[in-house]
Amino acid sequence: MIEVRNVSKIYGGEGEVKALQGVDLYINKGEIFGIIGPSGAGKSTLLRCINLLETPTTGEIWFDGVELTGLSSRGLRRVRQKMGMIFQHFNLLSSRTVTENVEFPLEIIGMPKRLRRKKVKEMLELVGLTNRADHYPSQLSGGQKQRVGIARSLASDPKVLLCDEATSALDPATTRSILELIKEINLRLGLTVVLITHEMDVIRMICDRVAVMDEGLIKELDDVQKIFIRPESSITKDLLGQVKVKFDPTMVNDIDEGWILKITFVGPSTKEPIISQLIQKYRLVVNILAGNIEQVHGEAFGELVIKISGNEALLLEVINDLLTKNLSVEVLGHGRDSGKFAETSTSIV
Amino acid sequence: MEGILVNLPKHLPLLFNGLQETLYMVGVSLVAAAIVGVPLGVLVVVTEDGHILKQRWLNLLLGGVINVGRSIPFIILMVAIIPFTRAVVGTSIGTSAAIVPLGVAAIPFLARVTESSLKEVDPGVIEAARAMGASRVEIIFKVLIPESLGSLILGLTITTISLVGYSAMAGAIGGGGLGDLAIRYGYQRFRGDIMLETVVILVLMVQAMQWVGSRLAKRVTHK
Ligand SMILES: Nc1ncnc2c1ncn2[C@@H]1O[C@H](COP(=O)(O)OP(=O)(O)O)[C@@H](O)[C@H]1O
Ligand SMILES: [Mg+2]
Question: What is the ipTM score, two decimals?
Answer without folding.
Answer: 0.90
